[in-house]
Specification:
The complex is a heterodimer of chains A (127) and B (474). With 127 residues, chain A is mainly alpha-helical. Chain A is built from 4 helices and no strands. Chain A has a domain of 46 residues. Chain B folds into 3 domains: 186 residues, no CATH class; 95 residues, no CATH class; 118 residues, Glycoprotein, Type 4 Pilin, CATH 3.30.700. Chain B starts with a helix and ends with a strand. The chains are: A mainly alpha (127), B mainly alpha (474). At the A-B interface, helix 1 and helix 2 of A face helix 2 and helix 13 of B.
């Protein structure tokens, strides 16, 4: 927002900095200064838009993750799907301490799957 | 740029003919207000939406952590049986063949039984038996079959709409068989009477595998009818020790602890289905009233309510798990029913509707275990009476004759309380309050509606273990 004192302040600074500047040129420079000053809020607005963009992206992520989790939960509620789906993969990093206990069974399951795969490959190589 | 070029550019500058006014317009206050209001609104809405999505994600994650193994009601149901081998088909035929008037039905359902009922009741029962010979024969035939699966659609889309008409029919058939057993006993046909009592136990075993608490309760009720029939038969006839020993193997074999657990799994399926079938308290209320319906408004409410609905399901699972842990062990101390719902948060609307009250079911399950143990003791006492012409003075005398140790009372592990009153046998367990009440039963054993209501209120107020709660063999 612009005010008269702001205009006077710019004019005074301009006169002090370049007293030999012709009046018309000084007014054009002043206009440019004022235009720049007007753009300040717009520049500040860029950060707001950036923040809004980040929030929107996080909202989309949250929505997607919730939707995925809800689909898993719905499957369990309706008696379909596996007991603990691929979320155990995330849990197995050991970062999430409440899920540590489950990681062992996941490791067992993974070991079983690897053994099964090895057996399959072995059978194929023999055939 | 060189100084000469700079001078040239200065010299080439031509000032405008008329100086334009500087465009400095302070923003109007009203416009500023609306701009700020709109900006605040957008940011506030964005932050609120963002927070809602975060909470929703957190609730989904928590629910995901709490959900156990996926299981469907149909997976818990008894295996399918061909009609030719299915006892249920014969039971239903027997139920269709029933010809009972209201007075006859009331007389059969009388808890006092033929031996203690009035003359009018005895006449009504005799009429009922003579009119229903075919139903009795079919029930005996069904009880002799190995497999049983009643026609229940466990795979229905709307589990709340599942009908269980066979349970009431089985109870009526059980009362009829009990009357028949007593009639046989009074006619001196001991083996036939014992066969009919055994039929009652097999009927109970046929209902018990159904994965629903209500079926479990009816199965217990039918076994209880069998125990009452056995008590009345033993009052009337005298068994040799061999007959008594042989009949121990024909008592009901249902593992009530496993059945209870199985029924709880079924309840869990039912509850989780309900949380999936409806999505907000309004739909839950409609489902409770038997008219499940959705429209755009309830769906919109479901979207807004989603995080609370997930937290509600978590509360349901926790409460069910807590009750399961509290009641699964036989003889576990009773807890007031109100304790489960008292600590539920305000948003747990569906939990309040769906959560079964397991305290009383647990007590009933324990009662059945006690009755089965007391049946063995009663058979031994009857055999003693056959040999000595009277009941023993002490339980140990019958135990010595019986040849093996009597089962102990489930509560405190003491022997059952035993005494004789004239030529009558008094045998009872001290019950869940662990106190000998002199053989006085709780009011629930009475048929009075007011007594039942009084006890229900007492239970709601936090005193499930009533003043008198001895479990009496009668």
């Amino acid at each position: 927002m612009e005010t008269r004192p702001e205009q006077e302040r710019i004019e005074a600074r301009l006169k002090a900095a370049a007293p030999e500047l012709p009046e018309t040129l000084r007014r054009r420079v002043m206009q440019r200064c004022l235009d720049e000053h007007w753009r300040k809020p717009a520049k500040a607005g860029i950060w707001q838009w950036r923040l809004a963009g980040v929030m929107l992206a996080m909202m989309l992520l949250c929505g997607g993750a919730t939707n995925w989790l809800d689909a898993q939960n719905r499957a369990i509620n309706e008696g379909r799907g596996s007991q603990k789906p691929s979320i155990a993969l995330v849990a197995d990093f050991g970062v999430l301490s409440p899920l540590k206990a489950r990681s062992k069974s996941f490791a067992d399951a993974l070991g079983w799957r690897i053994r099964q795969l090895a057996q399959l490959l072995d059978e194929r190589s023999h055939s | 740029m060189s100084p000469s070029e700079n001078n040239r550019s200065h010299s080439s500058f031509t000032p405008p003919k008329q100086t334009a006014p500087l465009r400095i317009q302070p923003e109007r206050p009203t416009r500023r207000f609306w701009r700020r209001a709109l900006r605040s609104l957008l940011w506030g809405g964005g932050v609120a939406l963002f927070s809602f999505l975060l909470i929703n994600l957190w609730a989904s994650w928590r629910l995901h952590e709490e959900l156990g193994a996926p299981i469907r009601l149909v997976q818990l149901a008894p295996p399918r049986v061909p009609d030719a081998e299915n006892a249920a088909v014969v039971y239903l035929k027997a139920a269709d063949a029933l010809k009972l008037t209201d007075s006859q039905r009331d007389a059969l359902h009388n808890d006092k039984g033929i031996a203690r009922g009035g003359e009018a009741e005895a006449t009504a029962e005799a009429m009922a038996l003579s009119n229903n010979a075919q139903a009795i024969a079919l029930t005996r035939q069904a009880a002799g079959m190995a497999a049983c699966r009643f026609p229940v659609d466990y795979d229905a889309v709307n589990l709340a709409g599942i009908l269980l008409p066979h349970l009431g029919k089985m109870r009526t058939l059980a009362y009829l068989i009990r009357a028949e057993a007593l009639s046989e006993a009074r006619s001196g046909h001991v083996e036939a009477a014992l066969d009919d009592v055994s039929v009652l136990f097999r009927m109970s075993e046929h209902i018990a595998p159904e994965p629903m608490l209500i079926s479990g309760l009816v199965a217990m009720a039918v076994e209880r009818i069998g125990c009452r029939a056995l008590a009345d038969v033993l009052d009337t006839v005298s068994l040799t020790p061999e007959q008594a020993h042989a009949f121990v193997g024909r008592l009901a074999h249902t593992d009530w602890v496993a059945t209870f657990q199985h029924d709880l799994d079924g309840e869990r399926c039912f509850g989780m289905w309900a949380f999936q079938f409806v999505s907000n308290p309004i739909e839950a209320r409609l489902l409770e009233s038997g008219t499940p319906s959705t429209n755009i408004f309830t769906r919109m409410l479901g979207v807004v309510w989603a995080p609370l609905w997930k937290l509600d399901e978590i509360e349901y699972l926790h409460a069910l798990q807590w009750q399961r842990a509290a009641t699964l062990a036989p003889g576990a101390p009773a807890y007031p029913e109100s304790i489960v719902t008292r600590d539920l948060p305000w948003y747990a609307v569906c939990t309040r509707i769906m959560l079964p009250s397991l305290a009383r079911v647990g007590l009933r399950r324990d009662e059945m275990l006690v009755y089965r143990d007391m049946a063995q003791v009663a058979l031994a006492l009857n055999a003693y009476r056959t040999l000595h012409g009277r009941y023993p003075s002490h339980l140990e005398d019958a135990e010595a004759l019986w040849g093996s140790a009597f089962p102990r009372d489930l509560y405190l592990g003491q022997p059952f309380v035993y005494r004789t009153e004239g030529d009558r046998l008094v045998l009872y367990s001290i019950g869940p309050n662990h106190k000998d009440d002199g053989g006085r039963k709780p009011p629930q054993s009475a048929t009075s509606v007011t007594e039942r209501e009084a006890q229900r209120q007492a239970a709601l107020n936090g005193s499930t273990a009533t003043q008198y709660d001895d479990i009496v063999w009668d």
